[in-house]
Amino acid sequence: MSKILLIEDEAAIRRVLKRIIADENNTYNVEEAEDGVIGLEIIKENDFDLILCDIKMPKMDGVEVLQKIKEMKPEIPVIMISGHGDLDTAVQTMRMGAYDYISKPPDLNRLLNTVRNALDQKQLIVENKQLKKKVSKKYEMIGDSKPIQHIKNMIDKVATTDARVLITGPNGTGKELVAHRLHNLSERSKAPMIEVNCAAIPSELIESELFGHVKGSFTGANKDRAGKFEAANAGTIFLDEIGDMSLSAQAKVLRALQESKISRVGSDKDIKVDVRVLAATNKDLRKEIAEGRFREDLYHRLAVILIQVPSLNDRREDIPVLINHFAAIIAKEQGMALKNFSEEAIVKLQDYNWTGNIRELRNVVERLLILGEKEISATDVDLFASK
């Protein structure tokens, strides 16, 4: 049942509004407050899905009440109730974050529609928060080893800036987790993070993928198409495996970084973009530069901050917590009972040479959960974890 608070100093209007809303479909629980001061005290102690607040009230007017609500619990939608002479103020409250306003005397249909729409918006906000929590959990960095703590500390310092970050490390170490954490902790987190796997896109298509194209610019270009840089506007673009990008595409990326402009393939029209660029590679870009496969000027543009992600062999103390983390996720995904790993099994797994890093560890944990006994033993590891 949705909880609604009605803040209104005129008792007669309170009764009318409460009756209209509460009688709508018996799914609204409406509480009352006779002025803004009382209303704020109630809000401090309770959670509401929606607040209706009069503008002209004694002790504290609705504008101040709205301001304090937005400071305390900004996720709650607030509908302002305005008298005939309060319309300019009502518009002002909309700029301050009010969901909408209704005039006295209220029109029945408009009131109920506004309440329904505000509650729907609140539900969307809740669902989006839950989804973001799931996404952030998916990209959680697991471990407390010194290398991981160092990376987390660097991310905390860098995330709130717009500094470009180059993330390096072997395959399977979790470079994309670093990129997601940087984005999720940044001021751009409400905007999209667009990922581009530069190694997975043919060299002849990478420019179109990144910058878009206009109709007829090449065979198969049947209509205008925006690229990844435009899709990431106001947010973040993550260029994974950037060491595999063609030199011609590198030149265009360099221009985008220098001028904050891109142009679609086949067009000479500039498009302004506001994008933070994160890049990752498993290659030694210094060596790539020396051999003429990577632009040195682009490297210096990308590597404002360098984050080196360690191999799993360099953070073996994190293996027990990683095993438990993956086991819980895999058991849930596969719909199987969660199995315990014996101490001997964990010690054996810590002694492995993890050439495939965390990705390989996850695969081994899954294999052991499927093929191992009720408790994963050292014998199970010997039988099923060999490479």
From TrEMBL:
Domain Response regulatory: start-end pairs: 3-119
Molecular function as annotated in GO: ATP binding
Key word Nucleotide-binding present: yes
Any one Pfam family match given in the protein's UniProt record, by short name: Response_reg
4-aspartylphosphate: residues carrying this PTM: 54
One GO BP annotation of this record: regulation of DNA-templated transcription
The protein's name: Fis family transcriptional regulator
